[in-house]
Design brief:
- The longest helix has 33 residues.
- Helix 1 crosses helix 6.
- This protein is 66% helix and 0% strand.
- It is an all-alpha fold.
- It starts with a helix and ends in an 11-residue tail after the last helix.
- It has one domain.
């Protein structure tokens, strides 16, 4: 086998792993939405899925615009992770896991025994 063929097959395997990972993450978000009483299919529609996530964590829809502002979006994303954890009766430690290791804590939230209990914000 030539080097080009090996590189091509390696890239194909990498792409396949990436696609499986992405599909799994969408499945987790789908499950989180259904646990929260929303339509699961909303997870696969870009931008709308963020709108639904804002609805799940009981934040106003205009926060979607804040996610478009550089640097502010990091703060909003952290707040959303904290709110998502609280909405499923999880603590700050779990929220930190959602921030730094979402590929581990997202599936735990989606497929674990967590139940949705929305939090009211002031």
């Amino acid at each position: 086998m030539s080097v080009a063929m090996l590189a091509s097959s390696g890239a194909s395997v990498g792409l396949l792993v990436y696609l499986v990972f992405i599909v799994f993450e969408y499945a987790c978000l789908w499950r989180i939405f259904t646990k929260a009483g929303q339509f699961g299919w909303a997870a696969i529609i870009p931008i709308y899925n963020v709108w639904v996530l804002l609805k799940v964590v009981r934040r106003p829809g205009w926060w979607l615009l804040l996610l478009l502002v550089p640097l502010v979006n990091f703060v909003i994303a952290i707040i959303l992770a904290l709110d998502l954890a609280k909405s499923f009766k999880k603590g700050t430690g779990f929220a930190i896991g959602l921030i730094f290791l979402p590929f581990i804590f997202g599936p735990i939230l989606a497929f674990g025994d967590a139940t949705y209990a929305p939090v009211q914000h002031n």
